[in-house]
């Protein structure tokens, strides 16, 4: 027979479990502290009931209390994970009749809607010439590059990685074949997105004009030996392919300069593109194709955004919509 340890208190069991996490699983001190905090909270809310005697009905009630107090589902799920690990370990150490966590799930997470700009804010963002730094020289072409990138993000709903991955044209040379590129003649971009799924998205005239202004400057920035930069549509001052991080920083700074209310990042322009096209067309399938979503359910979130927009218009304009004060 196996010699099973005997724990004289819940605290002794918790300490032994945490010690096993530290010595056997080699978890960090920070992670151990999080486990300790979650287990001590379980001990606290169980009051005088031994942890070994808790039932799944009691655990469910504890979870409901945490949720009622405003704890978000993500935090509750983390606590349940910590508790579940403890009870799995305890079942190996003692004759625990059942794991009370097994049948307990965290409350469903509320799916937050993506942030989207109003049409007016989106147009202002991409049409206002982005400013460069205070000490910019006359040969600082950053504003022209920025405007071309921002126009294209909003025009075609690209992910920032798709934008920076664009080649200036389709290239097939020396073993290299473009995965994503722009065609000004066809006024479209061909993009290889998530899951290596390829799609073709139209490019609006405003974005085309902004890119045409950028291309002569891009050519001046080309550097010998920078093969990837020579292929890229957007490059930095050193002639290297633009990175997503730089696009994010430039867009955020530009939006702040304009005083826009949101923390604007490239995905906000993607959300705005989808929402505004859907508002005008109502064609969910077309938006799905242009965004490159594998499932229509991923695109349907924008119908909720549109309803919010309609509800705001209704509340602001309908004579019988205002609530009684």
Report what the structure shows:
The structure is a single chain. With 325 residues, the protein is mainly α. It folds into two domains: 10-93, DNA polymerase, domain 1 (Orthogonal Bundle); 119-316, Orthogonal Bundle (hpI Integrase, Chain A). 54% of the residues lie in helices and 5% in strands. The chain has 14 helices and five strands. The chain has helices at residues 10-23, 29-45, 56-68, 73-93, 119-127, 142-156, 160-164, 205-221, 227-231, 244-258, 266-281, 284-291, 296-299, 301-317; strands at residues 172-173, 176-177, 181-183, 188-192, 198-202. The chain has a three-stranded antiparallel sheet with strand order 3-4-5. Strand 4 and strand 5 form a beta hairpin. Helix 2 (29-45) crosses helix 4 (73-93), helix 6 crosses helix 11 (266-281) and helix 11 crosses helix 14 (301-317). It is elongated, with a radius of gyration of 28 Å. It starts with 9 loop residues before the first helix and ends in an 8-residue tail after the last helix. The model is unreliable at 133-138 (pLDDT under 50).
Offer a concise description of the structure.
By secondary structure, this protein is mainly alpha-helical. It is 54% helix and 5% strand.
Category from helices, strands and their pairing: mainly alpha
- Distance between termini? 74 Å
CATH class of the largest domain: Mainly Alpha
How many individual domains?
A: 2
Biggest beta-sheet profile: 3 strands, antiparallel
Low-confidence stretches: 133-138
**Pattern of helices and strands:** HHHHHHHEEEEEHHHHHHH
- For the biggest β-sheet, the strand order reads 3-4-5
The number of helical elements comes to 14
Computed Rg: 28 Å
Q: Which CATH-level-2 architecture of the largest domain?
A: Orthogonal Bundle
Q: Look up the CATH topology of the largest domain.
A: hpI Integrase, Chain A
Basic shape: elongated
Mean of residue pLDDT values: 82
* CATH homologous superfamily annotation of the largest domain: Intergrase catalytic core
Query: Tally of extended strands?
Result: 5
Task: State which percent range the strand residues make up.
Answer: 5-15%
Helical percentage = 40-55%
